[in-house]
Design a protein that fits this description.
This protein is an alpha/beta fold. It has a single domain, classed as Glutaredoxin (3-Layer(aba) Sandwich). It has 5 helices and 5 strands, in the order H-E-E-E-H-H-E-H-E-H. The protein has helices spanning about 1-10, 50-60, 65-70, 85-90, 105-110, and strands at about 15-20, 25-30, 40-45, 75-80, 100. The strands form 2 sheets. The chain has a 3-stranded parallel sheet, with helices on one face. The protein starts with a helix and ends with a helix. It is found in: Cytoplasm. This is Peroxiredoxin-like 2A. Belongs to the peroxiredoxin-like PRXL2 family. PRXL2A subfamily. One of its GO terms (cellular component) is cytoplasm.
């Protein structure tokens, strides 16, 4: 099992993500920066307009305080397209951290 986790880590650690919402200038960084400071739950969303994706992230958002403050995890969303991202973040992810994976590296690596 450890080999599988290592393969997934190797496949995503260098994926370039973009911080593009609520900022004047888009900035990019490596995915491995997400978990540099603390354990991180990464929710990979293919399409912000997907009703199933919206519902799943809304459910997780309901428990965000418990997960982040009491359990000590960071939670972020990684999207594969920008269309509808602002609405998704505002209405379903309650303003949580949201990044764009332009290359779809997470999708390719994790299936």
């Amino acid at each position: 099992m450890a080999d599988q986790h290592t393969q997934h880590y190797d496949a995503i650690k260098d994926v370039v993500l973009t911080d593009f919402l609520d900022t004047d200038t888009e900035t990019t960084f490596k995915a491995s920066d997400l978990w540099k400071e603390k354990p991180t739950i990464i929710i990979v969303i293919r399409r912000p307009g997907c009703p199933f994706c919206r519902e799943e992230v809304r459910i997780i958002d309901e428990h965000r305080e418990l997960i982040e403050k009491e359990m000590g995890f960071r939670i972020v969303v990684v999207l594969h397209e920008k269309l509808g991202a602002a609405t998704f973040k505002r209405d379903y992810w309650n303003g949580g951290e949201t990044y764009w994976d332009k290359s779809k590296g997470f999708y390719r690596a994790l299936g």
